[in-house]
Amino acid sequence: MFVEEARVVRCHDGWVELESLQKSACDACSDKGCGNGVVAKAFGHRLHRMLLPDPGHLQQGQTVRVALPERTLITGAVLVYLSPIAGALFGAIIISMVQQLSGSHNEPMQIVAAVLGGVAGWLFARHRARQYERDPACQIKILQGDEVPLTLSSTQQDSDV
């Protein structure tokens, strides 16, 4: 799980609104000249707000740790980046095969098919993202106290120490 600190902005009606500061990909590069650090400096720090179910003990101004399962991040990246590209390729390949069978060649039609395939891939990604949004296993979780989300087995942890 990816763990981040967030500040409680507001608690109301069984929900808690949290605010988290976006960081660069790694803290080391935000001060050096790598690409992520340069982009982070160019766009400044962004605050992300999220609304989560209140576990019942949080107060405004309190700092908490939230965890995002790796599955959610990886699935989201695949949906956002690969679905439109796959749709565009699929659209272009299908129209190219149809044109090849008919003996014609129309490049603008292939471009339009690729764009339509990309849009179809984006719509598919949006639909699937909404399904994952309702999946409890993919939700952001508020960690309780010293709770540490571990994904390694105990034998792997012992060998790393």
UniProtKB/TrEMBL annotation:
Pfam families: RseC_MucC (PF04246). The keyword Cell membrane does not apply. Keywords: Membrane, Transmembrane, Transmembrane helix. InterPro entries: RseC (IPR026268), SigmaE_reg_RseC_MucC (IPR007359). The lineage of its organism: Bacteria, Pseudomonadati, Pseudomonadota, Gammaproteobacteria, Alteromonadales. It comes from the Bacteria. This is Positive regulator of sigma(E), RseC/MucC. It comes from Corallincola holothuriorum. PANTHER family: PROTEIN RSEC (PTHR35867:SF1). The chain crosses the membrane at residues 73-96, 108-125. The keyword Cell cycle does not apply.
